[in-house]
Design a protein that fits this description.
Elements (H helix, E strand, L loop, with lengths): L1 H25 L17 H27 L5 H23 L34
Helix pairs in contact: 2-3
Length: 132
């Protein structure tokens, strides 16, 4: 008799957990979008200041890439490719800023949802052919 009661309680517990999981999966998290002021415009002086900061960012990135090449961590060809990719990234940042920082959108998260140690990173030495 005790086995029957235990089995009934266990089955009910499993059903409750399964139902709770199914209900939780149906709920989509709400993403709060940043508030944008469509009327706000930068003055030419403000735009110049921001452009100067983007240039500083690009210069620092290039210096870091040059150091990696100097220390032999990457080849000169990889350094040039990394600099070109960095330049593209800065241009895209400027474009997104001009659109009003609408956000990056939903994504897979860190490592594109592939988990740890999957070897999909496109860093300097990991998978440089993917960075093209």
């Amino acid at each position: 008799m005790n086995k029957k009661i235990f089995m009934i309680v266990a089955v009910i517990a499993v059903l409750i957990v399964a139902a709770a999981t199914a209900l939780a999966a149906d709920e989509q998290p709400t993403v709060q979008q940043p508030v944008q002021n469509a009327d706000a415009q930068l003055t030419p002086q403000q735009q110049q200041e921001i452009d100067a900061l983007y240039e500083q960012m690009q210069d620092i990135r290039n210096k870091i890439i040059d150091k990696y090449a100097e220390y032999g961590t990457i080849t000169d060809a990889q350094a040039e490719q990394a600099k070109a990719n960095s330049e593209i990234m800065i241009e895209r940042m400027k474009e997104r800023a001009a659109e009003g920082f609408a956000g990056c959108g939903a994504g897979y998260g860190m490592r594109a949802g592939r988990g740890r140690g999957a070897g999909f990173g496109a860093g300097f030495g990991n998978n440089a052919s993917a960075v093209q």
